[in-house]
Design goal:
The complex is a heterodimer. Helices cover 43% and strands 19% of the residues of chain A. Chain A is of the alpha/beta class. Chain B has 21 helices and two strands. Classes of the chains: A alpha/beta, B mainly alpha.
Chain lengths: 134, 507
């Protein structure tokens, strides 16, 4: 059993990682960070730079939690990919960061967080960044 | 040397329209240099229809800007993302990315920009001095000499180019075959037209180039899907220190020379030059183990060489009318479309075009040096555009473009057919370059061969009685026969002795 964190290099993703790390330590399980940018372009703002991954590894080591980072790109829907990996790794909990969005934006773009929350067949921990101004 | 036409050339370049198109050319060049997959040959092919409406000088200034601009752009992704945007920047990856990982991305990019500038400028100066000489020498060329030169050009392009030699020769033969389609220029007989009126005038160069280079490359790139996606890189500390400059000055000098020489060679060009320059630096270095760990020379040498080569490969095109590589073949096509036949007469008959294009390269290189570093962030942003967005737009532009040339739907069909052919060729390891080059040179070869046979009363041995054509044909035979003979010798030696041959050192 592992704790799965859906990670993007944003304050929301950072909050999710912190919460995921605490959760993994509490449960005594390994941590699986899924940082999967959408495939097709050579560069994506969703991909975590190597320094950040190193930093995460150091933080996990300090808390003596086993860490695996997956950065393979996905095609299709992000929520499906997170759920697929959760199934594959037999995650005990999925940790995601959520943000405030306008109803119109949500209508147009859909919400990965909502789809994960509704479709997951296991507990989902949704966290917000600490200094949430909005 | 008469300086008046050179000065006039600067007058041509400094016209606002030409300056603008020079800027457009180098910016497009840098953009496609950054984008992996889409090379300068493909871009120039796709943009051929755009050049129809503008003056010949302006058109060629823009197209050559794309070519040497791409050499700058390719560096950026090599250094920052370990992703060579251009084949000629592949070796820059080793040391460039190592430097970037040490936090010295700016140093690598700065050195590359300075090296490119120096290499390009040295090449232009030598080009200005050498080209008129070669051209005046080539004015004595008659049909037999052109026959020999075209043969040698096709052979060199197929043998020197990277990849499988046999496949390149096959591709060149297909290109020669395609060149025979249409009405025979001497007898008026129809060949391989299958009664189709559209084929009566032969295959056009534009749809073939746009299909093989443009559409073919787009299709091929769509296929490579599961590449890793990287985070956007940040650049800091842009200017290289004085120590870096001193360390790489030798490499820049040698890179300029190697690049210039290999650029002139048919089949050489930027890619080969960068490989050779890197290998030379590695061999000369006191501590070769530094290479690959972030040696500044390892960035300076190939980047200097590829720009020098990109510039010097204009020499055979502008003086002899023989394109040295695939990109030059497309520019050759662009000149033909404009009603300018590249050849030795170009310097004397169209001095404005010749010197305008050559002198525009000074301006272009200065523009590139100024723009390359500040715009890095912008260029890297373009890499975030997905292929699924980029490819349909490019295909649409290609198809609309080819339609506008002749307002012919048949040309669109040709592009699609050649696009499929280009895709299959790339997939099976054939380089489309020799095909296009042989197609371009095919009609020149056929015309001059038949004209010379008329002169010689049908006696082919007379080719060897003329000094220039004789020498060229002997070189042709040497290049053609050397590899099989060497292979045979090696096989015999291997058969007599125990196979203890050491593997060849790879770059």
């Amino acid at each position: 059993m592992t704790v799965l964190v859906g990670f993007v290099p944003t304050p929301e993703g950072e909050a999710a990682f912190t919460a995921g790390l605490a959760e993994a330590r509490r449960r005594g399980e390994d941590l699986l960070v899924l940082n999967t940018p959408r495939g097709g372009a050579p560069v994506s703002a969703d991909a975590a730079p190597p320094e950040l991954v190193e930093q995460q590894t150091a933080r996990a080591q300090a808390d003596s939690v086993g860490l695996e980072v997956r950065q393979a790109p996905h095609s299709g829907d992000l929520a499906d990919e997170v759920l697929r990996v959760a199934e594959e790794a037999d995650a005990s909990v999925i940790v995601i960061g959520i943000r405030r969005r306008s109803p119109v934006g949500k209508l147009l773009m859909g919400s990965s967080a909502q789809r994960i929350l509704l479709d997951a067949d296991r507990p989902v921990l949704a966290v917000k960044p600490q200094h949430d101004a909005g | 040397m008469d300086l008046a036409p050179v000065i006039d050339g600067f007058g041509v370049v400094l016209e606002p329209t030409n300056l603008l198109y020079c800027l457009i050319g180098v910016v497009i060049g840098m953009l496609i240099g950054v984008l992996p997959g889409l090379g300068p040959a493909a871009t120039i092919a796709i943009l051929l229809p755009v050049t129809f409406g503008i003056e010949p000088v302006t058109a060629i200034i823009m197209l050559s800007g794309i070519f040497y601009g791409a050499q700058y752009g390719g560096t950026i992704t090599s250094v920052l993302l370990r992703l060579p945007g251009e084949a000629s920047s592949v070796v820059t990856v080793f040391d460039g990315h190592a430097l970037a990982r040490q936090g010295k991305a700016g140093t690598a990019l700065g050195i590359a920009a300075i090296g490119s500038f120096v290499g390009g400028t040295v090449s232009i100066i030598v080009l200005s001095l050498v080209a008129p000489l070669v051209a005046s020498f080539a004015l004595d060329f008659g049909p037999p000499e052109y026959t020999a030169l075209a043969l040698l050009g096709i052979l060199l392009v197929s043998t020197v180019s990277s990849g499988d030699r046999l496949k390149a020769v096959i591709a060149a033969c297909v290109g020669l075959l395609l060149a025979t389609v249409g009405r025979d220029g001497f007898t008026g007989a129809e060949r391989f037209t299958f009664g189709n009126l559209q084929l009566a005038d032969g295959l056009d160069f534009v749809p073939i180039a746009m299909g093989l280079f443009g559409l073919g490359e787009i299709l091929y790139n769509l296929e490579e899907r599961h590449r890793s996606v990287q985070a956007p890189a940040v650049v800091a500390n842009v200017w290289p220190s004085r120590a870096d400059l001193r360390q790489s000055s030798g490499a820049i000098g040698r890179g300029s020379v190697i690049g210039f020489l290999l650029g002139i060679l048919p089949g050489g060009g930027a890619t080969l030059a960068s490989l050779a320059a890197y290998a030379v630096e590695k061999k000369r270095a006191k501590h070769p183990e530094r290479f690959g760990q972030g040696a500044v020379e390892g960035v300076a040498a190939p980047e200097t060489a590829n720009n020098a080569a990109a510039t010097s490969s204009f020499i055979p095109l502008l003086t002899l009318g023989i394109p040295a590589n695939a990109t030059m073949a497309v520019i050759f096509g662009a000149l033909l479309i404009q009603g300018v036949s590249p050849g030795p007469q170009l310097v004397t008959q169209e001095p404005e075009l010749f010197w305008g294009v050559v002198n525009s390269m000074y301006i272009g290189n200065i523009l590139l040096l100024i723009m390359s570093i500040p715009l890095v962030g912008l260029f890297v942003r373009i890499l975030r555009v997905r292929a699924t967005v980029l490819a349909p737009i490019t295909v649409l532009i290609t198809l609309i473009g080819v339609y506008t040339v002749n307002n012919s739907v048949f040309d669109i069909m040709l592009v699609i057919v050649f696009g499929a052919l280009g895709y299959l060729m790339k997939k099976l390891g054939f380089d489309p370059g020799p095909l296009v080059l042989a197609f371009v040179l095919g009609s020149l070869l056929e015309d001059s061969l038949r004209r010379s046979l008329l002169i010689f009363d049908g006696d082919p041995t007379q080719f060897f009685t003329r000094p220039i054509s004789g020498v060229l044909l002997v070189v042709f035979l040497l290049v053609a026969l050397l590899p099989p003979v060497r292979a045979a010798l090696r096989r015999r030696r291997a058969a007599t002795r125990t196979p203890d041959t050491t593997p060849k050192e790879l770059v």
